[in-house]
Structure formats: C-alpha cells, structure tokens
C-alpha cells in the first residue's frame, strides 16, 4: 500500500472527491481507492496528476511497491518528454505565424511608402496580428490540440505559449 497525498492536494484546491473525479475523468470510487493508498494504473494516476496540476511523483509521500515506484518515475520522464515535444511543435507553429507577421508588416510599410494605396493599407498590420491571433487560437483549440493530445497523451496544452 502506498501513502497518498491525493486527498491533501484535492483539499488544497478546495475540491470534493466528485470534482476530482470529474476533472480527471475517473469514478468517485477510484478517487476513494487512490486516497486510501490503493494501487491504480499509471494512466489513472497520470489523469489525477494532470487534473491536480502536479507531477505524478507528488501524489505519493512514499511508494512501497518497488516496481510501482519505478513505473511512476518512468512515467514522470515520459510525461516531461511528451510535454517538451508538444511545446516544440507549438513553438514552431508560432514562429511561422510571427515570421509571416513580420513579412506582412515590412511589406505593408514598403507598399505604403512607395505606392498609391491610400491610408487603408496600414490596416493590414493590425488586421494580421489581431485577427491572425484569434484564428491561430481557434485552430489550436479546434484542430491542433486534439491531434497533439492524441500524439502526446501525457502532455497538456500550454496556453502561455500562445500569449
């Protein structure tokens, strides 16, 4: 049996067992078993850690089953690797967006100063950055995040990167 910190972490967030179950996608009975120190699958533990926003290793004060302890440590490493890969993909897409934005900005400046386009050509800059950011956020939420969730199941979307 393992000494669990799940109940403590849940209470810190001000959550009931029902809320933790809903947030992590498991049953209330499973939450009760975990809080009692019973073993669970690594997938279940990963879901609980993700819901509580803590590393898997922080869910337990001690782990008495050696194989389980090794599995938890391995899960931590895989989670970190998945998160790094996902963040790398996200950053790559953002670099392309920003690079295109720089081209749009410089192109607008050149066209505005050399051609007869009128004042409205300057609207391209805020339109690209404003509408483009909204569209990029929508594409991430509706299309890319589900694909990245499937490809890197131990990771989570990092909204701070889109800010």
Descriptive overview:
By secondary structure, this protein is mostly helical. It contains 6 helices and 2 strands, in the order βααααβαα. Helix 2 (17-24) packs across helix 3 (28-35) and helix 5 packs antiparallel against helix 6 (124-151). The chain is elongated, with a radius of gyration of 23 Å. The two termini are 43 Å apart. The mean pLDDT is 87.
| Global mean pLDDT | 87
Helix content: 55-70%
Distance between the termini: 43 Å
pLDDT below 50 for ≥5 consecutive residues: which ranges? none
Category by helix and strand content: mainly alpha
Radius of gyration: 23 Å
Strand content: under 5%
What sequence of helices (H) and strands (E) makes up the elements? EHHHHEHH
Number of helices: 6
Largest sheet features: 2 strands, antiparallel
Shape: elongated
The number of strands is 2
- Order of strands, widest sheet: 1-2
């Amino acid at each position: 049996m393992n000494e669990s910190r799940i109940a403590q972490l849940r209470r810190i967030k001000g959550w009931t067992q029902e809320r933790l179950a809903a947030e992590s996608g498991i049953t209330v009975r499973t939450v009760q078993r975990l809080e009692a120190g019973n073993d669970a699958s690594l997938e279940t533990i990963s879901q609980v850690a993700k819901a509580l926003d803590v590393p898997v290793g922080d869910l337990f004060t001690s782990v008495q089953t050696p194989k389980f302890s090794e599995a938890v440590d391995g899960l931590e490493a895989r989670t970190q690797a998945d998160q790094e890969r996902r963040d790398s993909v996200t950053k790559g897409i953002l670099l392309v967006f920003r690079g295109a934005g720089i081209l749009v900005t410089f192109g607008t400046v050149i066209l505005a100063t050399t051609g007869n386009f009128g004042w409205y050509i300057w609207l391209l800059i805020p339109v690209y950055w404003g509408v483009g950011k909204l569209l990029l956020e929508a594409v991430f939420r509706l299309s890319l995040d589900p694909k990245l969730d499937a490809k890197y199941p131990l990771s989570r979307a990092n909204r701070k990167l889109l800010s």
